[in-house]
Design goal:
Distance between the termini: 78 Å
Helix content: 40-55%
Strand content: 5-15%
Strand order of the largest sheet: 3-2-1-14-13-12-11
Oligomer: single chain
CATH topology of the largest domain: Beta-lactamase
CATH superfamily of the largest domain: DD-peptidase/beta-lactamase superfamily
CATH class of the largest domain: Alpha Beta
Radius of gyration: 27 Å
Largest sheet: 7 strands, antiparallel
Order of helices and strands: HHHEEEEHHEEHHHHHEHHEHEEHEEEEH
Shape: globular
Number of strands: 14
CATH architecture of the largest domain: 3-Layer(aba) Sandwich
Number of helices: 15
């Protein structure tokens, strides 16, 4: 073999080796792509799409003001911590946790909160509207026809007024705001225990509190305890089962439930030094066994973001139709004749400046609701925007003024970030 032949063979060998390396590389990349594609195909679809704020018309720079604001309230001991979520155009544009869940435990975005009175719009108002759509209830229906013995109220001229479902939903029923366990014990001295039946009897017959302004609302937990019982009566199942089957599971709200236990309870933010994963509201906790129309629901910011997105999307979410578009429109509208109440069936309208909407998001299509534990939902239909603020302020030193200020300032920051272009 001469030198030229040896050189030629060497070149051929190196070329073949080079081609082999390239082929192996292409094969590896192809397999990796196939594996990635397969893994992506098998991965569950996110329950709500996460995006950067700017992609949905929210200025990221403006939203950066939220963190130092909330952290100041945490540092002052007003609240142990908080989770803030912002929804726009059916997408989760912001989700951040601040402070601590409890002593020594950092707050996380998947923390479960006792949302207190958010139970009213999320569970009860939604459930009632579903029954209205099915032809099983009417908003104008008299409560005493569903709950025999339920008394109406007399105005200052002595005229008797029957109470309707719409009166209950808009807090214009004249029921008192609440009843303490001590008051119930005094009212029923011969009862060994404070039972659910006893509470319902009290609500049916207790003294009504007449408002000075005709048509004005008087917010009452007793209204929604009544509505919860009506939902159970019509659905023929407990309220928590009904909500799970007809609201939470269709929406994929897998972190929302009553009476948490086990691992779920361990993820809850305590509302006091002795209450964690247990309803903070005394009536819900002590009499209603944690399942009540006025309180008792536990949820996360992401789950409530999904619920809010469903309302902004006309009752639809992915493959689930929770409410019809006209039912959602009813939830956003103050009923004729109820203008003085400033309430829709289940929500309050921020027609003027309100702590839960701030100074800039006021409007006839801005819905708000709050919870005594330091929770709130604000939904602006015209801006396709929702703001969820969850805290366990009852464990901190927050006064009503403190938590109102925090809500209002967060909403103002979010409003300032809305891009109309």
């Amino acid at each position: 073999m001469n030198d030229n032949t040896r050189v030629s063979l060497s070149i051929v060998v190196w070329v073949l080796l080079f081609i082999g390396f390239i082929a192996m590389g292409i094969y590896g990349i192809t397999n990796r792509n196939r594996a990635t594609t397969s893994a992506s195909d098998d991965a569950p679809e996110p329950r709500i799409t996460r995006v950067i704020p700017d992609s949905v018309g929210l200025d990221s720079h403006d939203l950066e003001r939220i963190a130092p604001l909330v952290e100041r309230y945490v540092e002052r001991g007003v609240i142990p911590g908080a989770v803030v979520a912002i929804v726009r155009d059916d997408k989760l544009a912001y989700l951040e946790a601040f402070g601590s869940r409890s002593e020594g435990v950092p707050m996380t975005t998947d923390t479960h909160f006792d949302v207190a009175s958010l139970t009213k719009p999320v569970v009860v108002a939604t459930s009632v509207m579903q029954h209205v759509e099915r032809g099983e209830l009417r908003l104008s229906e008299r409560v005493d026809r569903l709950m025999p013995g339920f008394e109406g109220w007399r105005d200052h001229e002595g005229e008797l007024h029957d109470v309707t479902l719409l009166d209950i939903m808009t807090h214009t029923s004249m029921l008192p705001p609440y009843v303490s366990l001590e008051r119930l014990t005094m009212e029923y001295p011969d009862s060994a225990i404070l039972s659910r039946d006893l509470l319902m009897d009290y609500i049916a017959h207790c003294d009504r509190e007449i408002t000075d302004t005709e048509g004005a609302s008087r917010y009452s937990c007793l209204n929604y305890i009544t509505l919860g019982a009506i939902v159970e009566h019509v659905a023929k199942m407990p309220l928590d089962d009904y909500a799970r089957i007809n609201i939470f599971e269709p929406l994929g709200m897998c972190d929302t439930r009553f009476t948490p236990d086990g691992e779920y309870a361990a993820m809850c933010a305590p509302t006091s030094t002795s209450l964690c994963g247990v309803a903070h509201d005394p009536l819900a906790r002590e009499i209603m066994n944690g399942v009540s129309g006025n309180a008792g629901l536990f949820s996360t910011a992401e789950d409530l973001a999904i619920f809010s997105a469903m309302l902004l999307n006309g009752g639809l979410w992915r493959d689930a139709e929770i409410l019809s578009p006209l039912a959602v429109e009813t939830l956003f509208r103050i009923p004729h004749g109820y203008e003085a109440s400033n309430r829709t069936p289940g929500w309050k309208v921020a027609r003027t400046m309100h702590a839960a909407a701030g100074d800039l998001l006021v409007g006839d299509d801005t819905l708000i609701h709050t919870g005594a534990t330091g929770t709130s939902i604000t939904i602006s239909k015209s801006h396709n925007l929702a703001i969820i603020i969850l805290t366990n302020r009852t464990l901190g030193s927050a006064t009503a003024t403190d938590i109102h200020d925090l809500r209002s300032k967060v909403c103002n920051i979010v409003a300032s970030a809305v891009n109309f272009l």
